[in-house]
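Study this pair:
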Amino acid sequence: MEKCILMLLLVAGSLAGAAEKTKVACIGDSITYGFGLSDRGTQSYPAQLQKLLDEFEPGKYEVRNFGNSGRGIYLDSVRGSEKRGFRYMPEHKAALAWKPDIVICNLGINDNGEYIKEYTGGRKRGQFESDYLALLGDYRNANPKARFYIWTKLSPLAEGQRFYRSPEPFLMQADLEAVAKKMNAVGLDMQEPLREKMDEIFARDKIHPNAEGARIIAETTFRALTGCAEVKTIKPLVTKMLHVETWLCAGQSNMQKGWGEFNATPAEKERVENELKRLDKVDIRFWDFNTGEWTKLTRANALRKSAFGVSFAIRRAEAIKGQVRMLYVAAGGAPTESFLSEQTMCAIGKDGKPLYPHLAAIATNRHRLDQNKDFPCAWVAREYPRRRANREEAYWWPVSLMYDKGIKRIKESGVRLDGILWYQGESNATTCVAPDTPTDRDYQLETLRALVSELRGDKKIPFIMMGLPKMNRPWEQYRDVQREVCEETGAIFVDTFAAGLGEPNDVHPRDKTAFADLAAEAAAK
């Protein structure tokens, strides 16, 4: 960030004050207003944002605080005897009259309690989104060139706050993202940076951040406004090409590990060489969610790719005598929860009750896995703090991050999947503590039902689920649940245990060809 600041200061320093200032309007509720702060004039997030921008480019920006405590999006919502909607407030009228160049909005938290009605029948579905679009439309009418930044992931609510366990903020995210897309707005994630220290930040009343929390909000907003954040660029998934057979290959380490890790003994070297010879004769394109890069697989680059997935793709390419594309989304140790959107985990029925109670508890806890007492696998929770610093090894472990960085991008691309190949479950099958015992059966059912629904969407895409193989772990119940969910959903259960695959003391069976053969046979059917 220092380099970015110095570079721009050199360019803009002599021009400061010469041009009209860029007007930044912070509209929103009590968090924007700075409720509870001892000095709103210096501690509120708009005030701290002004300071950061002044240091960044003196005289360039003017930030004004148009927050009004207790306000929300719904126009027909009331608080006591007064309207709650921000569009009725004098701050809204004042902001419009100012004709801002940039509008930053954090509204949504005060719509909890009303938003749930869109799912239970008390409101027309889509009203929150349409009212939000109408609000931002006022600013676009006032200044057609205005740029918008909205909080698509709202500030977290700490334990003890009324809506702490509510699914509403998580269900709301889908609508907030839809609003951002339609307004060509930048979405701001305030959940992730704030929940790192949320017990301290929200200690006073569990909802309003202290001055330190406001500083984090200001810094997050500043980075978005100036583009000075260190962001890893990930290329979008391009789909404008003739359709060829395309498979989503997802899971944890048994999907992730490449042939280079199973190439030690003479027998293994021969096996790998045989696979590479087969690869030489087919055309396989590999998309890696870590980079967004498409690669044509060759013997020079395939050893670090998914051994199981690549061998499966080889067999499919041989069977159809054509190109096969792999969409790879896998990471060692990743639990099923990281492949699920928070909206799916928090899904509710018409009665307002969670469809997946265990998953809803995990998602609404808002803590990371290492702090989340609702997460059942102690091994994942224990390993997470150590691995979190190693981005290459386990950057994708938190709840929904495999979804956000991989599955979601595939869905949004509109790519047509011909099949889903899933090899995962070790991190969800047992508690992974001594004595190791199976996780709750209802929890296992929930995760697998939610997973099939998430990855398929509303399409009946062929889904091949690899059953957990032989090993000295209590996986029998999980295999039964895998089979049951496949029977329910029409997915294909590949019984690796009955086929005699697996190794008693190694969670990573070294001969992936045997697994790929079974999966390819299932695909052929």
User: Anything to note?
Assistant: The domain at 2-226 is CATH 3.40.50.1110 (Rossmann fold). Residues 127-142 form the longest helix (16 residues). The mean pLDDT is 90.
